[in-house]
């Protein structure tokens, strides 16, 4: 820079000595214009040097492996028009690194520990990716909780069925004095064989009392047909028993929720679950409380 200044001064001296014959005003105007243009030229000479320095600073950022220094650079020089090119480069590099990190975490298990680690390391530079990972974890946790509740409801429903079978057997035994012994034995066989899931023999034992209007036998016929995937028969028997049987009403709700033998209809399913719950079916009430479709994990609307 000193060399350029001496050059300007030297040229100025020559001009002054060569223009002694000019009038004072013309000389002053010419000299002022010259020095103004010379100053601008010297200023432009320094511009490439500044850009080189800025580019070198950015390259230093890129050479190190951490991402937060890039974010700090962007915040420090935000709005600096002279660094527009460098800011764009740093922003692109940060996005690239965030993408690499997101792919790395996508391959890891969705656990509370991984969420905490992701947040601790990258919340400053990749906040959107971090929160997306956290949301995936929360959704997974909710699904697991729903599955546990549904499993508990299913277990409770099975217990209820066993209790009802015992109650029905006791009631039938108490009424055995007024019922032919063959019919009483048939009912006992129906309840026991269904409870132990011997469906082929249970069908034979349950059919006659079911056709004669025994609600429990009708419910058992529906349960057996459903287990054998004879959905039309299951729906027919369940509808016969549903006015008095929570198990039958719950079974119909499940069929509509799953679209088994009928077109899936969540609103109709919900109505049947409500009827089953009103008849004391704990599993149906749990389904309504969790607001999810049985065995599918989808919401019942």
Oligomer class: single chain
| CATH fold-level assignment of the domain at 134-290 | Serine Threonine Protein Phosphatase 5, Tetratricopeptide repeat
Classification by helices and strands:
mainly alpha
Task: Tell me the number of strands.
Answer: 0
Order of helices and strands: HHHHHHHHHHHHH
Protein name: Sel1 repeat family protein
Biased composition (Basic and acidic residues): 144-156
InterPro entries: Sel1-like (IPR006597), Sel1_AlgK (IPR050767), TPR-like_helical_dom_sf (IPR011990)
Pfam family, one: Sel1
Describe, in short, the structure shown.
The chain is mostly helical and 301 residues long.
Descriptive terms for the model:
Sel1_AlgK, Serine Threonine Protein Phosphatase 5, Tetratricopeptide repeat, TPR-like_helical_dom_sf, 301 residues, Sel1-like
Description:
By secondary structure, the chain is mainly α. It is built from 13 helices and no strands. The chain is rod-shaped, with a radius of gyration of 42 Å. It comes from Marinobacter nanhaiticus D15-8W.
């Amino acid at each position: 820079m000193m060399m350029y200044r001496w050059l300007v001064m030297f040229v100025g001296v020559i001009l002054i000595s060569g223009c002694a014959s000019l009038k004072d005003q013309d000389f002053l105007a010419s000299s002022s214009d010259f020095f103004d243009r010379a100053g601008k030229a010297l200023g432009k000479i320094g511009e490439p040097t500044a850009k080189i320095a800025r580019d070198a600073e950015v390259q230093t950022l890129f050479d190190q492996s951490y991402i937060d220094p890039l974010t700090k650079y962007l915040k420090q020089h935000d709005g600096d028009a002279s660094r527009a090119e460098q800011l764009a480069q740093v922003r692109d590099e940060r996005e690239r690194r965030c993408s690499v990190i997101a792919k790395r975490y996508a391959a890891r298990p969705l656990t509370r520990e991984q969420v905490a680690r992701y947040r601790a390391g990258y919340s400053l530079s990749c906040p959107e990716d971090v929160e997306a990972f956290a949301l995936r974890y929360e959704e997974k946790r909710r699904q697991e909780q729903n599955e546990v509740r549904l499993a508990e409801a299913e277990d409770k429903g099975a217990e209820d069925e066993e209790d009802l079978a015992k109650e029905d057997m006791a009631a039938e035994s108490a009424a055995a004095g007024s019922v032919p012994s063959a019919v009483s034995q048939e009912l006992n066989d129906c309840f026991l064989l269904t409870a132990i899931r011997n469906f082929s023999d249970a069908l034979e034992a349950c059919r006659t009392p079911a056709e004669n209007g025994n609600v429990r036998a009708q419910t058992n016929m529906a349960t057996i047909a459903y287990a054998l995937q004879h959905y039309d028969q299951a729906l027919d028997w369940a509808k016969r028993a549903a006015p008095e049987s929570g198990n039958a009403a719950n079974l119909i709700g499940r069929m509509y929720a799953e679209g088994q033998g009928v077109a899936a209809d969540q609103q109709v399913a919900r109505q049947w679950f409500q009827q089953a719950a009103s008849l004391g079916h704990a599993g149906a009430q749990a389904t309504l409380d969790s607001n999810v479709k049985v065995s599918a994990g989808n919401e019942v609307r």
